[in-house]
Write a structure and sequence with these properties.
By secondary structure, the protein is α+β, with helices and mostly antiparallel strands. Helix content is 22%, strand content 44%. This is YfkD-like protein.
């Protein structure tokens, strides 16, 4: 067998069996956001019905898509796209040689995610206790939410147009994580779960409950948006582009993380 034969065989193997390292990396990325066994879904048991924070998906109109495709800086802000969809600037067809700029405002144009993590113990929401120190047999304890708790997320630092930025960050986080995310979640009083924990005789049991949250970090790109008019043609021009780092905590709705200890 000559060298040419070996090269052909090697190329065939590469095509048939893609890089295992890449496959493993993708699998690890998926595992990173898998829900641990000590985190339980309480959507059915929650005595407070949380409303899902579904973000409106704004599709650019044909004209808007044409306008934003001609801009070097990506425009992903749903509110800006919606505004462009509703704008009807129509230069006069007889305005030959007319030139002008219409200032639309300074907008957050897009959000680039750099890091996404989940803190499964973001905020303590409840503590259940069972004292079996004086007992002579094993006892069982369960989760029972003592008080209604509201868990709120927020941006980690000040930024212009915070509502627009929060929307873009939430959309990017939802792209990565298949969990119900919202900036507010409520755990109702007397919410219970059937999972039980054994407290042996002569022991004291403590069950801590936590609300998990996603920590999203990245950069927001800002720019001054103009409509440029040239006769009957119009386009979008972005000026004075800046970037700012930003972070946010976004709670996971209707999920509780448990930590059980014997003392």
């Amino acid at each position: 067998m000559n060298k040419r034969y070996y090269i052909i065989v090697l190329m065939a193997l590469v095509l048939l069996f893609p890089d295992s390292g890449l496959a493993e990396e993708k699998e690890e990325s998926k595992k990173e956001f898998e829900v641990p066994s000590h985190v339980l879904n309480i959507s059915k048991e929650n005595t407070y019905p949380n409303s899902t924070e579904d973000q409106e998906v704004v599709e650019p109109s044909e004209l808007t898509e044409e306008l934003i495709e001609g801009v070097e800086v990506p425009i992903e802000n749903p509110d800006l796209i919606k505004m462009l969809n509703e704008t009807s600037i129509k230069p006069s067809p007889i305005a030959f040689g007319y030139r002008g700029m219409v200032y639309v405002g300074r907008w957050p144009l897009n959000y680039q995610s750099d890091e996404t993590n989940i803190n499964w113990e973001y905020q303590t929401i409840n503590t259940n206790e069972l004292n079996n120190i004086g007992g002579d047999s094993e006892q069982k304890m369960q989760y029972n939410q003592q008080e209604k708790r509201e868990v709120k997320g927020a941006l980690t630092n000040k930024i212009s147009n915070p509502d627009d930025v929060k929307k873009m960050m939430l959309l990017k986080a939802k792209d990565k994580i298949e969990l119900p995310l919202a900036y507010t979640t409520v755990i109702g009083q007397n919410t219970k779960k059937e999972n039980s924990y054994s407290v042996p005789a002569k022991k004291y049991g403590e069950l801590q409950a936590y609300a998990p949250a996603v920590n999203e970090r990245g950069q927001v790109t800002f720019g001054e948006v103009y409509f440029q008019l040239k006769g009957y043609d119009k386009s979008i021009v972005i000026k004075n582009v800046t970037k700012q780092g930003i972070g946010a905590w976004i709670p996971v709705q209707d999920h509780v993380s448990f930590s059980f200890q014997l003392k």
